[in-house]
């Protein structure tokens, strides 16, 4: 790494990124260009050890297994829940859930000493979603990127699993139903689709960056994007057909 008032440089496995602090822009740079610029790089100690990293992944894996159990949980004992009660409860839970999810990304990002750029709302294909813009992710190592992208998923899993557990302890059908409903959303966010956390993790694992122009992406990203577009088309037709 290299850090100065104007520029910050980070490299891993001969892939280097330069951040122009004044323009807040990022550029890819080759090892040869690093040598030509006569930049003296120094080793950066990572905050998470390799053991800690795999413990983190293992913890999320077991939370995901329990989340799948929630998704498959039999709700026959709670068939007296009214639609109005569920919708009103879901509106409140969804708001808290979204905030807690994005907080997970922010906490992990700040742990690595980075600042978020913005928080906002956008449409992910045709689906409304909230997001946290973290451009400084380019200056993180592969392990750090994965942890940041999984941070929201971690917070979501912890919250939803606790809500389910509380529902079982209190014998509350509403709480169990909410956890079951949101468990499907967590599963969908875990797989590499629709710009999900799972998708971002896959990109980090493979060490590729998604380009804005479709044709400039490699085959892996192109295939995922085509599958996503087909999914949106099928979903749209299914939704309209069932109106």
Characteristic key phrases:
single chain, 243 residues, alpha+beta, 2 domains, four-stranded antiparallel beta sheet, two-stranded antiparallel sheet, elongated
What's the structural blueprint in terms of helices and strands?
Elements: E1 2-3, E2 7-12, E3 15-20, E4 25-29, H1 31-37, H2 50-71, H3 83-111, E5 118-124, E6 127-133, H4 142-170, H5 173-190, H6 197-206, H7 219-241
Antiparallel strand pairs: 1-2, 2-3, 3-4, 5-6
Give an overview in words.
The protein has helices at residues 31-37, 50-71, 83-111, 142-170, 173-190, 197-206, 219-241; strands at residues 2-3, 7-12, 15-20, 25-29, 118-124, 127-133. The protein folds into two domains: 2-37; 50-207, no CATH class. A hairpin with a 2-residue loop joins strand 2 (7-12) and strand 3. 57% of the residues lie in helices and 14% in strands.
Alpha-carbon distance between the two ends: 55 Å
- Tally of helical segments: 7
Based on secondary structure, the structural category is alpha+beta
Q: Provide the helix percentage.
A: 55-70%
Low-confidence region ranges: none
Mean pLDDT: 86
* String of helices and strands: EEEEHHHEEHHHH
Count of structural domains:
2
Which sheet architecture does the biggest sheet show? 4 strands, antiparallel
Please report the total strand number as a whole number: 6
For the biggest β-sheet, the strand order reads 1-2-3-4
Rg over CA atoms, rounded to whole Å, is: 21 Å
Query: How would the global form be characterised?
Result: elongated
Beta fraction of the residues?
Answer: 5-15%
């Amino acid at each position: 790494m290299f850090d100065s008032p104007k520029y910050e440089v980070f490299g891993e496995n001969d892939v280097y990124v330069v951040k122009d602090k004044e323009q807040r822009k990022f550029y890819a740079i080759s090892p040869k260009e690093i040598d030509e610029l006569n930049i003296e790089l120094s080793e950066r100690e990572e905050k998470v050890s390799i053991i800690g990293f795999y413990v983190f992944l293992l913890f999320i894996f077991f939370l995901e297994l329990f989340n799948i159990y929630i998704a498959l949980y039999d709700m026959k004992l709670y068939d007296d829940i009214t639609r109005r009660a569920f919708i009103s409860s879901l509106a409140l839970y969804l708001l808290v859930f979204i905030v807690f999810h994005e907080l997970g990304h922010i906490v992990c990002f700040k742990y690595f000493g980075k600042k978020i750029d913005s928080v906002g709302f956008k449409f992910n294909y045709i689906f409304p979603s909230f997001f946290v813009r973290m451009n400084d992710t380019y200056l993180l190592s592969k392990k750090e990127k994965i942890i940041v992208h999984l941070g929201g998923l971690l917070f979501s899993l912890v919250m939803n699993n606790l809500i389910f557990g509380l529902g079982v302890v209190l014998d509350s059908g509403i709480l169990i139903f909410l956890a079951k409903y949101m468990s499907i959303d967590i599963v969908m966010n875990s797989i590499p689709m629709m710009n999900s956390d799972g998708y971002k993790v896959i990109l980090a694992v493979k060490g590729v960056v998604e380009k804005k122009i479709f044709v400039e992406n490699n085959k892996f990203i192109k295939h995922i994007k085509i599958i996503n577009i087909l999914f949106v088309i099928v979903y749209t037709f299914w939704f309209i057909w069932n109106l």
